[in-house]
Task: structure prediction
Amino acid sequence: MAELAEAVTHPLDPLTASEIERAAAIIRRQRPGMDRLRFPLLMLAEPAKQEVYAFRAGDPIPRRARATLLDRADGAAYEAVVSLEEDRLESWRALPGAQPPILMEEFAAVDALVKSDERWLAALARRGITDADLVQVDLWSVGDYPIQGVDSARRLVRAASYLRNRPSDNGYAKPIENVVAIVDLNENRVLQILDGDVVPLPPESGNYDAASVGELRTDLMPLDILQPEGPSFSIEGCLLSWQRWSMRVTMHPTDGLVLHQVAYDDGERRRPILYRAALSEMVVPYGDGTDAFHWRNAFDAGEYGMGRNMGSLSLGCDCLGEVRYLDAVVAGDDGEPMLCPNVVCIHEEDYSILWKHYDLSTGSSEVRRSRRLVVSSIATLGNYEYGFYWYFYQDGHIEFEIKLTGVVQTRALPPGGSDDYGTIVSTDLSAVNHQHIFNMRLDFDVDGTGNSVVEVDTVPLPPGEANPHRNAFAAQETLLETEQQAQRIIDPLKSRCWKIVNPTKLNRFGEPVAFKLLPEASSLMLAAADSRVAARARFAQNHLWVTPYDPNEMHAAGDYPNQSTGEDGLPRWTAQDRGISDTDVVLWHTFGVSHIPRPEDWPIMPVERIGFQLLPVGFFDRNPSLDVAPPQPACHPGGEPNE
Ligand code: NI
Result:
């Protein structure tokens, strides 16, 4: 760990390795009886926003850690806040009924437990599988589906299995159908094996590595991206600056990639836009009604930890060009720091044209190339990959994109069988219908903390004196005044967007400065509202929620969705129907994709994307990118005629 920068220069800097060690040591020292204590979460206790805004370089930085603990001795969960300065536990509270997220060590434990269980081995033998070492065991959170004869207060997971004839095989080609293990993670015991009808293993391989796919294309010419003078951005600790943009980039164990204090330098002024932006939760509900599948859903942030599953990125593969990486230090299950190298990739991309006009009278053309800054990270959650990409542009707009790829969930079909809940992607193999629904927590501070949210619909004007030709249309603005009123869905036919305005900061036209959240067309939860998965993912009922800032409200389905019944999070908070106008607002944007898998998604799914844009609306007085220099060397008209 010696190579890690240990200096803390800002209140939002993540815990260093030695701070993680000290925080865990303080907790252990002050809870001497608890020798089976595990650390599902241990991270910086983010200071209050006003403290962060008041901070000036060189000020003392009080450091606090927040931990979620699991006592294996009795399965109880606790939340602790540690003062590192004062070397003491600042608070300690029990979390009755909460199950902390699934630990890394529990994946290995479940694999070993299942593979040594006689009932499971017998179920495999019934299917002609005798070498348990070839079996891939996938762990699944149990959600809120009762299991007959099992107390739901236990710390539980389910496990499904796949056969790999060679260790490098794609196991999802050969699901071992209708064998499900129920495991108690605290007792380290397989409670039940559900052994249903035998379905033969599908016959085809699903391997996609270069050696498995036959002859490779040879007709791509080299494409080199060179920045001989280095990138145009700079990184100091977590602070990233590029063009007029600045932001702090960190990794959170639950939320993954987090941006803080996204701001734009406008002349001498550093103008804040977002205080904090990150994934708050996501859910992947499966749409298969069978016994072996209906319970499958994953809250990948709260149940598994998006940040704890971030991969190390590599040059020329995940990012191209003049790339810089950020490492993260996270706490392991034992409270010891672990270095995760290269989890954030930062680079620039040429992105076609920024603006252009060809003047018909003079025959001259003004055009500027668009350069964008990309901040990205990629998590692997079981079979699936989620790439999180923030893009910053020279015209002051921001895009967020999630790239979905990886291997789809599969089930084996009886020979020649069909599937009502999925798409046949290979012989006797179905990829199951499912959704990926994300919720992003966007804490806007547009030119300050006092903001309001306005819904904007573009609608025809009523016929009449003001609209004699019945062709006129205009933006119709509705101020969202309370939390209940601000539970909204998209309406692409009205070009609906939501403006975050600062009513006290006017632009030169006398209008409040604003950014708008421009959503994409996307689905919400398809499972019935009274289904168990929908009840736990109420955030997936609306595309927009707005709350007044509360530092304890961070995750749309609550801090502990694992085995939850779904009362916590946005529905509970917004039941207060607090006022949200001219205050410190937080927007919660839900969006997602519904996957009816295609044959082309097998054996590995080409990237699909979903996201949203944040665009300045009267935040600037005119196009802020006029000062981008023309392309160098100067462009020349036409180019060579066809040869
Ligand atoms: Ni999918």
About this structure: The two ends are 58 Å apart (CA to CA). The mean pLDDT is 96. The longest helix spans residues 17-30.
